[in-house]
Each structure stands twice: as structure tokens, then as C-alpha cells.
Amino acid sequence: MHVFLSLDWFLLIEKAILISIIIGISLIVAMYETWAERKVAAVIQDRRGPNRAGPGGIFQPLADGLKLFMKEEIVPNLSNKFLFILGPGIAMLTAMMTSAVVPWAGNIHAFGRDIPLQVADVNIGILYIFGVVSMGVYGVMIGGWASNNKFSLLAAIRGASQIISYELAMGLTLIAVLMLTGSLSLRTIVEQQLDHKYYVFYQPVGFIIFLVCAFAECNRTPFDLSEAESELNMGYHQEYSSMKLGFYLFAEYVNMFISSAVMATVFWGGYDIPFLNDAKFGQEHGQNLLAGLELLCLFLKIAFFIFFFIWVRWTIPRFRYDQLMNLGWKALIPLAILNMLVTGFVILFH
Fold this sequence. Notes:
Blueprint: H1 2-6, H2 9-44, H3 60-70, H4 81-97, E1 107-110, E2 113-116, H5 125-146, H6 150-181, H7 186-192, H8 204-217, H9 229-232, H10 242-267, H11 278-285, H12 287-313, H13 321-349
Antiparallel strand pairs: 1-2
Helix pairs in contact: 2-3, 2-10, 2-12, 3-10, 4-5, 4-10, 5-6, 6-8, 6-13, 8-10, 8-13, 10-12, 11-12
């Protein structure tokens, strides 16, 4: 009873509200990433794209979501039904969980206290992201295996081996960043980049490696070998329909959103506003206005990376699978190790 009364209920309510807002924004962003992808593809291919559902096709994601909800739920007779349902749930859950440690802005002042716009400022934030993203492999693997479809299983094996391979290079890249920061906390990493000392200028090779690996982690072209229609019919989610398929599709776009947020946070200063002294602006115009501008700035950086993801998809052709694995194991991992060693020597003799 004493423990129950000693709980900080305001903190619990604050975190519950923040979690709900982040999940809602992530889903809305994922919906309109599909609209943006079709619009950018239309411009590149000299066609119109969505233009019927609302002005400029702006309501097309709502129509697509309603279509997925209304489609018939199909579970193959010879599938493992429990795992068949569990697979897309794991994919969606892990995609949403990664947003918990991202600092979206500084603090806002409300109800007599400072409220950080971050669900959990843990001192192992980057390790948490890697742990959760690694669990996302199970969503792909379980879904492909439980379908009892050979093409789905082959696609799932491809996807799992691809994600594991590129996670190694991504992790080695972040070790070089951690040598500079001395912390695994994402908020600390952002605070060390305030006044526009962005780590991308100290780790340009690391940023490029991380960006390439992010494409592979998100199963985006040119690394979408687990969804190669010309080779595997459709991919690991071939047997899925309705919102089970929707979960897999949404997980890809949520992962793209969170990957963009992590890249912006680690390499591009996160919510730091270029050419603005944040401390001076906060003193002159108020903490809440500053937090709102920081949030807007972070979302603009995220929007740029999302546009880059989309632009690359409709510009570069898909790799062959042997090219994909050669790039990961023979090029990116050795380059990431070399970048880590050079960073260590520079810090040692600086």
C-alpha cells in the first residue's frame, strides 16, 4: 500500500500521454509515407500518382487503410496458426518500441514541472535500439516459416541473413561515434552536438555506412531482396492478407521513420536548430516555444531522410543477392572496422 501511494502518478500519466502521442504520430507518418512515396515515384516517372481521393490524393492513405481493414482474413490451412498471427505482431511491436529512447525535443514546462519530450532517457539508448531492431528479425522469420510456403521461407531466410549482416557494420559504425561521445544515451549525444558541432562532420564515412545499412535494415530498394517479386513471387508475407499484411507494410514505413530519426539524432544534431543559439532563444522567448521549434526542426531532418529513402527506391535497381552479401561482408564491415581504428588513433594522438 505504501509503494502504491508513493508512485509518481503525474509521471506515469505524463509518460502514458507521451507514448500515445508518439504511437499516433508514427502511424500517421507511416500512412502518409505511402502517399509521399507514390507522389515522388509519379514525379520521377512523369505521371500523376494518387489524385482522386481528396485534393492531390491526400486521403488515399485513409482509403488504403480502410481497404486493408475490410479485406477478408485468410489463414492457410497448413500453416502454424499461432505463429502465423504472431509474426506480423512482432514486426509491428518492435518497429514501434524503437521510438521510446529518441529525444524529440528539449523540455517543456507545464503544471509546474519540466517535462522531457522523450519516453525514456536510458544510458544504454543505442544498445536498446539495436536490441529491439534485432528482435524484428523474428517477425520476418516467423512469418515466412509459419506460412508453410517455400517461397515465403526462402524470402524470410534472405531477409534474416541480410538484416543480421548489415547490423554488424551498423554497430561497428556506432562504436566510432561512441568513442567521440563517451555515452550511449541519445539525449547526451544530442546535447554534445548543440551549437551545430554535428558528428557527421567528424564521422562522414561512418554516416555513409550507417545510411547504407539503414536501407538494408528497412528492407528498402536496392536491398529489398526478401520481397523480390521476380524471384520469390511476393516475399515472406505472400500468404498474408488484411491487417496482418498491413502490419508488415506499416512496420517497414515505421522503421523508415525511426531510422531517419536515429540518423538525424546521432549524426545531425537531433533537435538542434541550425544557426540558432538555443539557450539564448529559450531565455528570450520561452522554453515551450523553443521545444516546439526543436520538434519541428527534427521532423524536417527526418522528412529529408524519408525523401532520400523514397528517391533511392525509384532511382536505383535492385541488387542481386550475392552482390548484397558481398557489399555487407567484404566492403562495409572492413570499412567500418577501418573507420573505427582511424577514429581511435585520431582520438589517441589528438
